[in-house]
Amino acid sequence: MISYQLGEINAFSLSLYPDTEPSHVDHWIKNTVIKVIGDILEKDSNVIFYICDSEDNRHDKRHLVFEYWYQKSAEVYAYVSKFNYAAVSENGYPINASVLYNNQNPLGDLIIESFKSELDNF
């Protein structure tokens, strides 16, 4: 994981590159991701946003895995909510993206609208 400090913004990058296609769900990874999501979103002003890379045409599979992780984290942490976005960029690049946020954040609607607006201009 790579961490960046951007003023008052912390940005993290996580990339997983398995050598082979997994044949089963790795529960250790799932549990780690659920804990990370819950810990980050415990503070109601934090958000997590991600785009599933489509370079290898596996973005839909990645998005399904992230959806599974989200569903499991929402079972543990009631404050976790998500908004999905799917489109094709001007250059034909498929975009599968989501924003996870604390549903107790009074700016939740603004977060979603800003997220959609930025990706519409991608």
Order of helices and strands: EEHEHEEH
Helix content: 25-40%
Low-confidence runs: 1-6
Number of helices: 3
Any overview of this molecule?
The structure is a single chain. The chain is α+β, with helices and mostly antiparallel strands. It contains three helices and five strands. The strands form two sheets. It has a three-stranded antiparallel beta sheet with strand order 3-5-4, sandwiched between helices. A two-stranded antiparallel ribbon has the order 1-2. β4 and β5 form a beta hairpin. α1 (27-41) crosses α2.
SSE map:
Layout: E1 2-6, E2 9-13, H1 27-41, E3 47-52, H2 59-76, E4 80-88, E5 94-102, H3 108-120
Helix pairs in contact: 1-2
Summarize the structure.
With 122 residues, the chain is an alpha+beta fold. Helices cover 38% and strands 28% of the residues. The chain has a domain at 62-122.
Descriptive terms for the model:
122 residues, alpha+beta, two-stranded antiparallel ribbon, 28% strand, disordered N terminus
